[in-house]
Write a structure and sequence with these properties.
about 180 residues, Ribosome_biogenesis_Nop16, nucleus, Nucleolar protein 16, mainly alpha
């Protein structure tokens, strides 16, 4: 098989290019990717990561921030009661905002698809609690077994309990009118 064009050419190494310096400067310029908006706004790009985190009252290394006591390791060490150098926190609002945000209750973002809701409502409306009949229904496109359909209905009940109660209550007068 023939070689691709240009592959026979000898590649020359540039001895005059300082690759270490290029790599180091590119790495220094890249700012750290910060996910938390509170930290991002308080970040000073002219300081190191350790300096920025120390100013905010955050730990750079969690193992150093909360060390394992020597007693747990099996060694007894006497301490003179003095704590190692206390650091001054210049930006305490960052930690306060993060604690406030963490204390807020988490909102439920779980929802079911509109198709699944329509499918469950159709099955309940036409078949009630008869899951075997639901499995034989022509709208059962995915050929769910009676247990699978029951599981889907239970998921709907758990996600929307009020809506389910209202839906079942609205079905009862219709059934009485039919008889």
């Amino acid at each position: 098989m023939p070689k691709a064009k240009g592959k026979t050419r000898r590649h020359k190494y540039s001895y005059n290019l300082n690759r270490k310096r290029l790599f180091r400067s590119a790495r220094r310029r890249a700012a750290p990717r910060i996910a938390c908006s509170h930290i991002r706004h308080a970040w000073d790009p002219h300081k190191s990561v350790a300096q920025n985190l120390a100013e905010m009252g955050l730990a750079e290394d969690p193992n150093k921030a909360v060390p394992i006591p020597k007693k747990l390791l099996g060694m007894e060490v006497e301490s003179d009661g003095q704590q190692p150098g206390k650091k001054i926190v210049r930006k305490p609002y960052v930690v306060n905002e993060m604690e406030l945000e963490a204390s807020l209750p988490e909102k439920k973002s779980n929802t079911l698809s509109r198709d699944l809701i329509d499918y469950v409502r159709y099955m309940i409306q036409n078949h009630g609690e008869n899951y075997k009949e639901m499995a034989r229904d022509e709208k059962n496109y995915y050929q769910d077994t009676p247990k699978q359909i029951k599981r889907k209905i239970n998921v709907y009940k758990n996600f929307y309990p009020e809506e389910y109660k209202n839906f079942v209550a609205s079905l009862k007068p219709e059934k009485m009118e039919v008889q």
